[in-house]
Amino acid sequence: MDKGKAVMGAGRRWAVDFSDQSTVPSSRDILDPPGFSRASPEQDDSATSRQKKDAEANWKLQKAWEVAQSPFKNLMMMGFMMWMAGNTVHLFSIGITFSALWQPLSALQSVGKIFEPFKDNKVELLMPKLVFLALNLGGLALGIWKLNTLGLLPTHASDWVSSLPPPQEVEHSGGGFSFH
Amino acid sequence: MAIKLYLLLLVFLSSAIASFSLYEDQVGLMDWHQRYIGKVKHAVFHTQKTGRKRVIVSTEENVVASLDLRHGEIFWRHVLGTKDAIDGVDIALGKYVITLSSEGSMLRAWNLPDGQMVWETSLHSSHHSKSLLSVPINLKVDKDYPILVFGGGYLHAVSPLDGEVLWKKDFTAEGFEVQRVLQPLESSIIYVLGFLRSSEAVVYQIDSRSGEVVAEKTTAFPGGFSGEISSVSNDKVVVLDSTRSILVTISFLDGGDVSFQKTRISDLVEDSGEAEILPPRFSDMLAVKVNKRTVFVRVGGEGKLEVVDSLSDETAMSDSLPVADDQVAFASVHHEGSKIHLTVKLVDDLETVLLRESIQMDQHRGRVDKVFINNYIKTDRSNGFRALIVMEDHSLLLLQQGAIVWSREEGLASVTDVTTAELPVEKDGVSVAKVEHTLVDWLKGHILKLKGSLLLASPEDVAAIQEMRMKSSGRSKLTRDHNGFRKLFIALTRAGKLFALHTGDGRIVWSVLLNSPACARPSGVSLYQWQVPHHHAMDENPSVLVVGRCGSDSSSPGVLSFVDVYTGKEISSSDIGHSVVQVMPLPFTDSTEQRLHLIADTDGHVHLYPKTSEALSIFQREFQNVYWYNVEDDKGIIRGHGMKSSCSGETADEYCFTTRELWTVVFPSESEKIISTLTRKPNEVVHTQAKVSTDQDVLYKYVSRNLLFVATVSPKGAGEIGSVTPEESALVVYLIDTITGRILHRLSHQGCQGPVHAVFSENWVVYHYFNLRAHKYEVTVVEIYDQSRAENKNVWKLVLGKHNLTAPISSYSRPEMFTKSQSYFFPQSVKTIAVTSTAKGITSKQLLIGTIGDQILALDKRFVDPRRTLNPSQAEKEEGIIPLTDSLPIIPQSYITHSLKVEGLRGIVTAPAKLESTTHVFAYGVDLFYTRLAPSKTYDSLTDDFSYALLLITIVALVAAIYITWAISEKKELSEKWR
C-alpha cells in the first residue's frame, strides 16, 4: 500500500491500482488464480497470424529500404546547396558545409536506432544498413570535399610551412660605413 | 569615360582601404610632440622700447625663434632648411627681425611680434666666404641707414623697409674680405674695413646713399693678419698678426688714414704663447685668450694696450651692454664646484661689480658655453640683469635674481642615435590602487565614459572625459606594463648627452652627460643595447653602451661608456686605447646577458667586448663564422673580412684579433658612386619564411641578415636633382651577400638619380629615388625569394617533418634566389623611410615615410607589393591585393603626425610593444614626436575607450533578469499546481 500512501499524501484518501502488469508472481501480493497462466496470448499461433506476420515483415523490409535510400535525396539537396554557396569562405558556405558534415555523422552514429523499428527475425536488414551507410559516407565525403574546396583542409604545402620560422644562419657579419 | 572609371575606382579604393586615422578627441592620447630650437648661436633681446619680454634667438639647427622670457615658451619659430645656416640675426627698426643665412646670400625680415615673413631678398654671391650682417641701430624709418651685408665677395646695402637692394659693391676681383663695417650715427659715410690677401688693410669710405666709394686707403702690413678681429671702438680694431704673438691696433681716422700699432703679447703677459681673440665684443676693451687664461686688454686713446684683468679659462663672457648713464657692462660666468657664479661688471671699471650671483647648477649640464645679458629697470630704479646662458649640453637657461627661471633641453634638437629600453618591473610593495585612486573614482570615471558613449554627456562632462583620458591611469608610471606600452627611448645627442624619454608623456626620466677619464668631453658616436636581462640575470639592471670618441677624426681614441637604464647612472667609462671605426653587435650573449660587441679600429683589427674570458670562449666557438665588411664610399669599394688570428705585438691583448680580406666589390669609379647602403635591422623578428599566394602556392622568403643593399649613381648624377640629363644618369641597386661578397641581384634604373632613401625588412627592400625622364619621384619594391627551397612542396613530407626548411643555412651553400619587383610613382619628396616592427612579426607592416613637409605618412606594405596587377582576380582581391595604379596614393588621414610637424625630421625609430598588434614610433629632428601604431588595428586588445562600465552593467542587468524571471516562473508554477 505504499502507492496508496503516496497518493494519500497528495490529498486523496486511498486508491487501488488496477493496472499492475508485473509478471513476476512473487512481486505481487495476490496470487494468480489456479489454472491461469501469464504467458503471452500470442502463443496460440494460427495460419492467419503467420500470414499477417509475413506481410508485416515485407512491409518492414520495404520501409527499411526506403529509410536506407533516404540520404540520397538529402545528398542531392546538399550538392545543390553547396553549388549555390560557392567556393569562398563566408557564413553561408561554412554553415552549409558543416551541416553537410554533421548530418551524415549523426546518421552514422544512430544507424542502429534508425533501423530499430524494422528489427525482425525474418527481415534481413544488412543490405539496407550497408546502403544507408554508403550513402551517408558519400554525404560525408561530399562535405569533406567541400571543406577542401573552401581551403579549410591542410592539404597544401602552404598549410604546413606557413608558421615555420626562418632558418638560423651559420655566419654572422656586421659593418657598414666607417664612423666619420 | 576612362577618367570616370578611374574616379570610381578611386572612390572604391578609398572606401576599401581601412584608414588608421584618429578622431579629434584621440589626439594626444597616445602621442606626444615636443618643440625645440637647438643650440643657441645668437640671441637678441628686445629693446626696452618695444616693451615685450621676449628674446630672439638663432640656433645651430637653423632655427630663428622668439622666446618668452618669463616661461621660456616659443612664441614663434621658423626652421630654415638644413643648408640654410643662419649667420647673423638682428632687430631692425624695432619691429623686424633680420636674419642673414646661407653664407650671406639670403636676407629675410620677420615681423617681430608674430613671426610673419615681411620680405626676403636673395643676394648675389660668387663664392663661399665669411658673411657679415650690419644692421643700423636706428629706429627711424630712413633709407639713409641701410642694412649692410657682406657675403660671397659682394657688399650689399638693403633697405630695411622692403628688402630692396639699394646698391651693391663688387669686391670679388680684388679678393677683398670685409671684416668690419662701421656706420657712425649722423653720418652718411660708411667705413668698410677689410683685408686684402691677409696682408693689406683696406678702408673704404662709402657713401651710404649711393654706394660710391668716396675714399680708399690701402696700407700694407708685412706681418700679415690672422682672421679674428675685435672692434673696440668706432675707429679702432684690434687684430692678431699671422704669428699670433702680436696684437695690432688698427686706427682709421677721419681722413681715411690707417695706422698700425703693434704690441707684443709677451709685453702684456709674462707667460706668452699663441693668443686668440675671443668673440665677445666690448667697447674699448678686448678679451684675449693666452695660455688657457683670459686676459682683458684695454685699448687706450692712442691705441696703447694695457692689461686690466685676467681670469681662469673656464669663464664665459657676454658682449657688452649699455646700461644707464653711458656705462657699459658685461657678464661673465665661471664654475666653482657645483655652482656657477654670474658676475656683471662695468667695462670701464672692472672693480665695480654690478651684480654677483651664485646659482646651483646640475652637474650634467657641463660648462657654460655662451652668455647673453639683458638689463631691465627694477621698481627701485636700479638696474636688474637677466642672463641667458647656453650650457655645454646645449641647454638654454635664463638666470634672474639668483635663480634659474626656466630651462630648455635644447640638446634634444640634435639627436644622433636612439635605442629603446624597458622600465623596471613593478615591485610588490607598490599598490596599484594608489595610482588608480579609489574605487569610487574609478566607478565615477567609468560612468562618465558610459555617459559619453551613450551620447548623454554634457559639454562639461565631455571635457572631463577628455581630461581623464589624457592623464589616464598610470600612463606615465615608471614601471613596466602588461602591454609594453610604457618604455624608455634613450636618445644620444650631438653634445654627448644621453636622455631617457618616457613613452607615456615624453618627459625626461634621466639625463647624463658623458664623461671620460682621457678627455674632458668625448663626442658621442653611437648607442647600443648592452645588457637586456630577460631570461637570466634578472636581478641586474639593463644597460646601454655609448661609443664615444676623444676628438673629431676617425683615428682618435674611443671611449666606451656603460649607462644603467633604470637609474641613469654611468656604471663605468673606459678609455679603450684604440680608435673606433665600426661597432658590430654580435648575436651572442654571455651568462649575464651582456651582448658581445666587436669594435674595429683603423688598423683593421677587431676588439672583443666585454673583455671577459667567458665572452672570449663564446667568441672563439664562433670564430670562423664571424665576418665584417667595410664600405669605402669615397673609393667605391666594399671589402669583406674574416677573422684570422689573435693580435701580435706588445700592446695587444687576447681580446684583439686580426682579420684577413676575403672579398672586394669594386664599383667602376667612372660610372658608379655609392650613395646609400642599408641592411636589415639586426633585432627584427620574422614570423615565417613562407609566403602563401592566392592559389595556395608557397614562395620561400630569402630572409638573411647578411644582405647588404647598395645604391650607386653615375658620378655626374650625384649632385642635386635636375643637374644632369636623363641620358647621363643611371641608378643601380645591388643586393650583396656580406659573407661571400656575391652579388645576388642587380637592378639598373636608367635616367634616374638619387638621393636614395630605402628601407630593408624581412625579404624586401623599398627605395625612393627620382626619375629624370618622368620628372617624378619613384618608389621601387624588390622582394627576394629562395628558389632552392621551392621544391619543398610534398605535403606528406612536410606533415612528417622530413624537410630541411628549418636547418641552419650557410651563405656558402650558394642559395638560388629570384626577385620580384615593381615600381610606382610617389608624389612627394622624402626625407627618411622606416618600417613598423612588432614583437612577433605577425602583424602586417606599414612603411613610415618622413615627407618633405616634415610629416610622417603611414603607407601599408600592401601598396608596395609586386603581386599587384591591373585586374586582380576575385581570389586575389579577397586576399587584399590592391589593383595596380601608376602612383602610390597619399591618404590624408594616414599621416600619423596628424596636424603636427616634426620640424627638421631626420630619423624615425620603431620598436615593438609587448602586444603583437602595436608598435612604438619615435621621430626626431628639431622636434620630437612619439606615437603608438597598430598597423592592423588593435586586434588583440580592447581599445582604450571600451566601456567596461557598460559591459558590467549589462552583465549585472542580465544576471538580475535571470533571477527575476526565475523567481516569477517559480511562483507561477506553484500557483499552477494549486489550481
How would you characterize this protein structure?
Chain A: This is ER membrane protein complex subunit 4. Chain A: Belongs to the EMC4 family. Chain A: One of its GO terms (cellular component) is endoplasmic reticulum membrane. The complex is a heterodimer of chains A (180) and B (979). Chain A is mainly alpha-helical and 180 residues long. Chain A has a domain at 69-153. Helix content of chain A is 55%, strand content 3%. Chain A is built from six helices and one strand. Chain A has helices at 2-9, 47-85, 91-109, 111-114, 126-149, 157-161; one strand at residues 172-177. In chain A, helix 2 (47-85) runs antiparallel to helix 3 (91-109) and helix 3 packs antiparallel against helix 5. Chain A is elongated, with a radius of gyration of 33 Å. Mean pLDDT of chain A is 77; it is low at 1-10. In chain B, the strands form 15 sheets. In chain B, strands 43-44-45-48-47-46 form a six-stranded antiparallel beta sheet, covered by helices on one side. In chain B, strands 50, 51, 55, 56, 57 and 58 form a six-stranded antiparallel beta sheet that branches. In chain B, strands 26, 27, 28, 29 and 30 form a five-stranded antiparallel beta sheet that branches. Residues 1-19 and 429-435 of chain B have low confidence and may be disordered. Among the domains of chain B are: 415-423 and 449-580, Thrombin, subunit H; 582-666, no CATH class; 676-795 and 814-826, no CATH class; 829-862 and 886-942, no CATH class; 947-978. Chain B is built from nine helices and 64 strands. Chain B is globular and about 125 Å long. The longest helix of chain B is centred in the C-terminal third of the chain and has 31 residues, at 948-978. With 979 residues, chain B is mainly β. At the A-B interface, helix 6 and strand 1 of A face strand 43, strand 46, strand 51 and helix 7 of B. Strand 1 of chain A pairs parallel with strand 46 of chain B.
